[in-house]
């Protein structure tokens, strides 16, 4: 799994690539939470290159969403492949997280920054 970070205005763009499983979920959590600890509060997760996510990976996304909400921030996910979207749907996460199809749709959710 590979995570890359890019800052655009006030939003941290996070690209997830590969697989998030119990093997690497701890490292993914550490990498993401380190960004929150540095003061990042608005994150856009690009999931277009994520091929697999386990329950451990779902937990990381949920923890990140909770942490950002506590700091008054926003988490938006976009670009899920069908198999990833199905996992989020079955787990009920589509009902509690902000998920869009495109980056443009996702950016609308950060309008409070303007």
Structure description:
The chain has 114 residues and is α/β, with parallel strands linked by helices. Helix content is 39%, strand content 32%. It is globular and about 30 Å long. Helix 1 runs parallel beside helix 2. The chain has helices spanning 25-37, 55-70, 82-91, 103-107, and strands at residues 2-8, 11-20, 42-53, 74-78, 98-100. The termini are far apart. The mean pLDDT is 95. Strands 1-2-3-4-5 form a five-stranded mixed beta sheet. Belongs to the anti-sigma-factor antagonist family. InterPro entries: Anti-sigma_ant, STAS_dom, STAS_dom_sf. This is Anti-sigma factor antagonist.
Give the helix proportion (percent range): 25-40%
C-alpha termini separation: 33 Å
Instruction: Determine the mean pLDDT.
Output: 95
Q: What proportion strand?
A: 25-35%
| Low-confidence segments | none
Number of strands: 5
Run of helices and strands: EEHEHEHEH
Name the overall outline. globular
Order of strands across the widest beta sheet? 1-2-3-4-5
Structural class: alpha/beta
Radius of gyration: 13 Å
Domain STAS: 1-110
Protein name: Anti-sigma factor antagonist
Family: Belongs to the anti-sigma-factor antagonist family.
Pfam family, one: STAS
Task: Provide a quick synopsis of the model.
39% of the residues lie in helices and 32% in strands.
Layout of secondary structure:
Elements: E1 2-8, E2 11-20, H1 25-37, E3 42-53, H2 55-70, E4 74-78, H3 82-91, E5 98-100, H4 103-107
Parallel strand pairs: 2-3, 3-4, 4-5
Antiparallel strand pairs: 1-2
């Amino acid at each position: 799994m590979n995570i890359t970070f890019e800052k655009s205005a006030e939003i941290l763009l996070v690209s997830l690539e590969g697989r998030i499983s119990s093997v690497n979920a701890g490292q993914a959590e550490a990498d993401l939470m380190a960004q929150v600890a540095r003061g990042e509060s608005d994150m856009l997760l690009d999931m277009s290159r994520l091929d697999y996510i386990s329950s451990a990976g779902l937990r990381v996304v949920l923890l990140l969403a909770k942490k950002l909400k506590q700091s008054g921030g926003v988490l938006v996910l976009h670009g899920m492949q069908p198999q990833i979207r199905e996992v989020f749907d079955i787990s009920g996460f589509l009902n509690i997280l902000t998920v869009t199809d495109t980056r443009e749709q996702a950016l609308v959710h950060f309008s409070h920054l303007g």
